[in-house]
Amino acid sequence: MNRMNPKVDFYFNKAKKWQEEFEKLRMIILDCGLTEELKWGVPCYTFEKRNIVLIHGFKEYCALLFVKGALLSDAKGILITQTKNTQAARQIRFTNVREIVKMNPILKAYIYEAIDVEKAGLKVNFKRTAEFIIPEEFQNKLDEIPALKTAFDALTPGRQRAYVLYFSAPKQSKTRESRVEKCMQQILSGKGLNDE
Question: Which of 5, 64, 175, 193 would disulfide-bridge 36, Cβ 3.0–4.6 Å?
């Protein structure tokens, strides 16, 4: 029961790289009975309208991205966390079509498990912002300016997280400091990082 979605065809057709790999991954996923959609500009496969797995192409590899990969048992130890701040999603990466062909039964097992996770209604427990490390450049400002701390505490957890991740990203303290400086007014106004 292969339900290819013509809307998604163009993604596969325009791919300069990984064309064969994408085609193979697409077949494997559709064999598992998922619905093919285009979301965020990439092929996304859903079960009862819930996102299960995405196909991604990067420069060095292409990947299956399991939206709730953190909940899979990962019997083969092949799931990769993209960045240390990624909480739910996990990738399986490929560099050639032979790997995909060889892993066909394993990939299907992972996809079926991901569908079961969804059927069971399991949810990833996201860390609360309190569990994220606040960079000291920001912590100093929070200690210095009580109004800033009050405004930051009043933001939604998602907004707090976005700021903390944004402030933590640069390697150099100076850059972290300037990011904090730039955003202080926005925090004091009760706005999130990307709010206009």
Answer: 5
